[in-house]
Write a structure and sequence with these properties.
The chain has a five-stranded antiparallel sheet with strand order 1-2-3-5-4, with helices on one face. Strand 1 and strand 2 form a beta hairpin. The protein has one domain: HIT family, subunit A, CATH 3.30.428.10. Helices cover about 20% and strands about 20% of the residues. The protein has two helices and five strands. The longest helix is centred in the middle third of the chain and has 18 residues. The chain is globular and about 40 Å long. It is of the alpha+beta class and about 120 residues long.
Length: about 120
């Protein structure tokens, strides 16, 4: 049996998290190592290892993650001031948890280039 990822354990309520949004397809919670005043993670409930392993049948879930980012930004009050979304893929992309997730960073001016 494959071991659950950290994010699956959070989704299954085996590990506590500060959840700000949940629906049938995803969960959004505060990052425990924030890189901005507001740093949230949106995680699909279906375990997809990384964006490069997503399949055509995951298209609805992938689109839903982006629309959820908009919804959460409006709900939490930072949609108007702006935010950054990030999806890390693989070691050089900064991926730390092998479960696709979308970072939302807000609450300060973001710089470019980000890396």
């Amino acid at each position: 049996m494959i071991e659950k990822t950290l994010f699956q354990k959070i989704s299954d309520r085996e590990i506590p998290a500060s959840i700000v949004y949940e629906d049938d397809l995803c969960l959004c919670f505060k990052d425990i190592n924030p890189q901005a005043p507001i740093h949230l993670l949106i995680v699909p409930k279906k375990p997809i290892v990384r964006i490069c392993q997503a399949e055509v049948e995951d298209a609805q879930t992938l689109g839903h993650l982006l629309l959820t980012a908009k919804k959460v930004a409006e709900q939490e009050g930072f949609a108007e001031t702006g935010f950054r979304t990030v999806i890390n893929n693989g070691k050089h992309g900064g991926e730390e948890v092998p479960h696709l997730h979308l970072h939302i960073l807000a609450g300060r001016q973001m710089n470019w280039p980000p890396g």
